[in-house]
Design the sequence.
């Protein structure tokens, strides 16, 4: 499922930038609020993806590209695999919801190109009321796994194609919603007594996730003779424990 | 694998039916030489075992929980669980002014609190469009490098304990104590420093403080060399770390690792060089890089990083300029109390700053720094009010920890502890 890693030499940061004769990065001073040099990858993206690029702007020296939701996966794959861009390092996946109810919610991808020493922010805008769905990029970057899980946990964004999209910071049985949404109150959605009731009623088996329970119950995968042996042993163990219990009752 | 199994069998050969210690079985080869032969493998059931480590376990460095699937003693699968320390920092930050968030940054990666303070205000200052003073820049470099050494000392000490060495832990914690005393003299707190403000620092360094720092710079390398000599060529240490948890360079990049974890795999990515801040490009220092990407290389890289931090500290102490500490900007910096009580304009500034807080223009920034754990970034989004719409911490330890299932698979159960220690996790930062 996972795509192979790109084959360009990626181990030395700045190698492509040096080969192109661009100057080494320095601490930026006196950055303008708006405007400034645009990331060179944006022009290539416009040429390649055309209408999928909604708009791009430079703010505080950082380039942001707003992309149509259905193109984001192909666009990130292009940026990663093309040696002229080589965004091989996924910095962050997150979301922004504004206090203004009119403003669309934004999904944010922060990409870094180690060979070119460039930084690019990609955004997908999702109007209020529409389902929060985006394609997963776990097949491109292994780091997207936990970052997307956190975004799902905190904002309720569903990343389609993620192999294991479940809560990561909150527990599996958390029912109060997604904490970083603006309609989520600071103290939580349930009352303190409700939260306590829920905490006390948690099933102790819930300490293990479904994945782990399937490890423990991996019975069906075993060879037939081993299954028989194990079944016999379990029956013997069960008989023994029952006997002990009976003896205890007698005493 | 099999070699190690035999060694363990020789070490714990057990007792015979009379209670006498058994000797390892010897066999005679065809040429008459006596050779050690592995004891016969006991008949094992083929089923896998589920082992739970944590969340309350001394070797998980906080409240990390690992559920391991074991085949004998070999890890087949690892499922980490986090979130036991989740406090909702990012949510709380949306209800606080920018300067009020600084105390929260102390508490995420609490081994690097002053480094987080600096990193956060760097983000704020870019969002406000403020240029800090030269003296403040150099003092912040001093704060960040002190913080890096403090964090690495805790990492090195606790990793020693995890792997079974106790003495270096005591030596290193003594040096950490010296640094904490310096911090206490500067900002009044040891762990929860809250040392910075948007546009400057909370306090100027006191008289004679620089002499204390110079004494530390002189004395510390000796302690570090001693501890390093105890470990770097130590047979037990190398046996527990060499070849353990190795990741290739391409894999490490793909997993988004940063800091010493990435550099041990041979990728010289250091935010101080690649995305410079605080004029780091003007300091003379090297970025240590490993070759194998195993636990041992991560150790070597972190020890060398401490030496490089000392180099940076030496240069920073030398170049520390005189001049004002805070920017001269009434939008963000409080006027002196005497002026606030005597002059109308200063009083208004004082009132507005305390009651409303500074207001940045509409915009967003992502400012990364090289924290001891890796690339730590603050992504701040402002809608023009005095409280951020979104305050996102890019937690390096969170991303580094996500690679642990890949690193531990195929290793022994005891290696899980060494690999987990090598990530240098702080759960306060991972769970936030």
Sequence:
């Amino acid at each position: 499922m996972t795509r192979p890693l790109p084959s360009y030499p990626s181990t030395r940061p700045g190698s492509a930038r040096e080969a192109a004769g661009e100057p080494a990065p320095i601490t930026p001073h006196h950055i303008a609020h708006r405007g400034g040099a645009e990331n060179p990858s944006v022009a290539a993206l416009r040429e390649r993806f055309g209408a999928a690029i909604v708009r791009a702007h430079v703010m505080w020296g950082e380039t942001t590209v707003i992309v149509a939701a259905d193109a984001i996966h192909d666009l990130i794959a292009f940026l990663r695999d093309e040696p002229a861009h080589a965004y091989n390092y996924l910095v962050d996946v997150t979301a922004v919801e504004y206090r203004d109810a009119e403003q669309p919610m934004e999904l944010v991808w922060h990409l870094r190109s180690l060979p070119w020493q460039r930084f690019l922010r990609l955004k997908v805008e999702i109007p209020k009321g529409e389902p929060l769905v985006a394609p997963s990029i776990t097949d491109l970057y292994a780091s997207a796994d936990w970052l997307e899980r956190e975004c799902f946990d905190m904002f309720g964004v569903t990343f389609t194609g993620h192999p294991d999209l479940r809560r990561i910071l909150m527990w599996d049985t958390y029912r109060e919603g997604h904490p970083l949404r603006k309609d989520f109150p600071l103290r939580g959605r349930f009352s303190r007594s409700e939260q306590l009731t829920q905490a006390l009623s948690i099933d102790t088996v819930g300490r293990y996730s479904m994945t782990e329970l399937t490890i423990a119950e991996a019975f069906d995968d075993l060879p037939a003779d081993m299954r028989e042996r194990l079944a016999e042993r379990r029956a013997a163990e069960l008989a023994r424990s029952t006997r002990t219990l009976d003896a205890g009752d007698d005493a | 694998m099999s070699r190690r199994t035999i060694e363990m069998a020789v070490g714990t050969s057990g007792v015979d039916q009379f209670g006498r210690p058994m000797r390892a079985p010897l066999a005679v080869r065809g040429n008459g030489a006596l050779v050690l032969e592995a004891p016969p493998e006991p008949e094992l059931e083929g089923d896998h075992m589920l082992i739970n480590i944590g969340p309350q376990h001394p070797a998980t460095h906080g409240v990390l929980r690992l559920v391991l699937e074991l085949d004998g003693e070999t890890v087949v699968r690892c499922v980490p669980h986090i979130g036991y320390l989740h406090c909702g920092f990012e949510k709380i930050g949306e209800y606080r002014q920018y300067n009020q968030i600084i105390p929260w940054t102390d508490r995420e990666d609490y081994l690097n609190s002053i480094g987080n303070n600096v990193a956060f205000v760097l983000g704020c200052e870019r969002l406000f469009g403020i240029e800090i003073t030269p003296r403040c820049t150099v003092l912040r470099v001093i704060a960040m490098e002190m913080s890096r050494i403090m964090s690495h000392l805790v990492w090195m000490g606790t990793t020693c304990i995890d792997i079974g060495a106790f003495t270096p832990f005591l030596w290193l914690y003594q040096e950490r104590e010296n640094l904490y005393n310096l911090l206490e003299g500067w900002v009044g707190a040891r762990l929860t420093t809250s040392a910075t403000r948007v546009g400057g620092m909370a306090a100027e360094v006191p008289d004679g403080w620089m002499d204390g720092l110079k004494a530390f710079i002189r004395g510390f390398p000796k302690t570090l060399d001693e501890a390093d000599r105890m470990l770097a060529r130590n047979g037990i240490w190398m046996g527990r770390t060499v070849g353990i948890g190795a990741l290739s360079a391409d894999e490490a990049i793909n997993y988004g690792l940063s800091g010493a974890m990435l550099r041990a795999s041979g990728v010289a990515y250091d935010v101080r060089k690649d995305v410079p801040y605080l004029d780091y490009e003007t300091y003379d220092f090297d970025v240590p890089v490993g070759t194998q990407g195993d636990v041992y290389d991560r150790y070597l890289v972190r020890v060398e990083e401490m030496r490089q931090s000392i180099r940076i500290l030496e240069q920073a102490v030398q170049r520390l300029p005189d001049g004002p500490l805070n920017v001269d900007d009434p939008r963000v910096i409080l006027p002196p109390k005497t002026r606030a009580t005597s002059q109308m304009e200063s009083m208004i500034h004082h009132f507005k700053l305390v009651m409303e807080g500074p207001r940045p223009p509409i915009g967003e920034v992502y400012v990364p720094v090289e924290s001891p754990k890796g690339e730590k970034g603050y992504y701040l989004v402002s809608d023009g009010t005095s409280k951020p719409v979104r305050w996102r911490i890019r937690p390096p330890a969170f991303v580094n920890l996500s690679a642990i299932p890949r690193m531990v698979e195929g290793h022994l159960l005891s290696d899980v502890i060494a690999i987990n220690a090598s990530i240098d996790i702080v759960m306060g930062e991972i769970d936030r």
